[in-house]
Specification:
globular; single chain; mainly alpha
Length: about 240
């Protein structure tokens, strides 16, 4: 399997498939395909070639967790929130420790510049969706636990995880907590906007278009949240 995992959205392992002899920097069209089962084992074997220490049982648990997270996401998107919550619970329980072990192994190979947050995006995504499913089921305490977990695993750099926390605070009528979480989310949207405003020399049109889309979305959400902050500050002032 030529290429490597390029999933950065929490959707699980996605590989770039390159024709033999082609280079990622010169080919204009790259096929992308989700992998699971035996193909995912092959991908993890490639990581083992890079001196990562992932046991066979941990690989199997990671595969089971990934695949269960896919099922959970499908249930969540179908608004079958009870099923989604249970599936996410199972996926996280099965694969959280192997996922963290894999990231520690990758970090030991990648050195100081390795981004350990990116590799657990699927976990952050799982906690976010589970949080919102619990909110839909009026389980505020469970939603709060999932929101905190999402912020911890993302090291407070995921704007949407912070918005989950803000939504939990709103549901529990914690205006100050919602204000703080919303401000933290705005800071991360600002970071995204700044990051994707930078020049991208050597990148193709698809990559530049994706960067422009991320930047535009961050700017739009940040502006909308600014209005929410004004409202929350007004409420706090009126209640003091």
């Amino acid at each position: 399997m030529k290429g490597g995992c390029v999933s950065g959205c929490g959707s699980g392992p996605v590989v770039e498939i390159l024709p033999d002899g082609e280079d990622v920097m010169t080919i204009s069209s790259i096929k992308r395909k989700k992998v699971k089962g035996d193909a995912l084992i092959s991908l993890l074997d490639e990581l083992s070639d890079e001196e990562t220490d992932i046991s066979s049982s941990m690989r199997q648990r990671l595969i089971m967790g990934y695949e269960q997270a896919h099922e959970a996401k499908a249930a969540y998107e179908a608004k079958d929130y009870q099923a989604a919550i249970q599936l996410y619970e199972d996926a996280i329980q099965i694969a959280r420790n192997p996922a963290m072990a894999l990231e520690e192994a990758r970090a030991s190979v990648g050195g100081d510049n390795y981004d350990s947050v990116k590799g657990v995006n699927w976990l952050v995504d799982s906690f976010r969706n589970s949080c919102r499913a619990r909110l839909a089921m009026k389980d505020i305490d469970g939603a709060r636990r999932d929101a905190f977990a999402a912020t911890v695993f993302s090291q407070n750099t995921d704007a949407d995880a912070l918005m989950c926390l803000a939504e939990v605070c709103q549901a529990s009528k914690d205006t100050m907590g919602e204000l703080q979480a919303t401000k933290a989310a705005i800071a991360q949207y600002q970071r995204l906007e700044d990051e994707y405003s930078k020049p991208m020399p050597g990148k193709d049109a698809v990559a530049r278009a994706e960067a422009a889309k991320i930047k535009s979305n961050a700017s739009t959400v940040k502006r909308e949240l600014g209005f929410r902050i004004v409202k929350l500050e007004r409420e706090l002032k009126a209640s003091s």
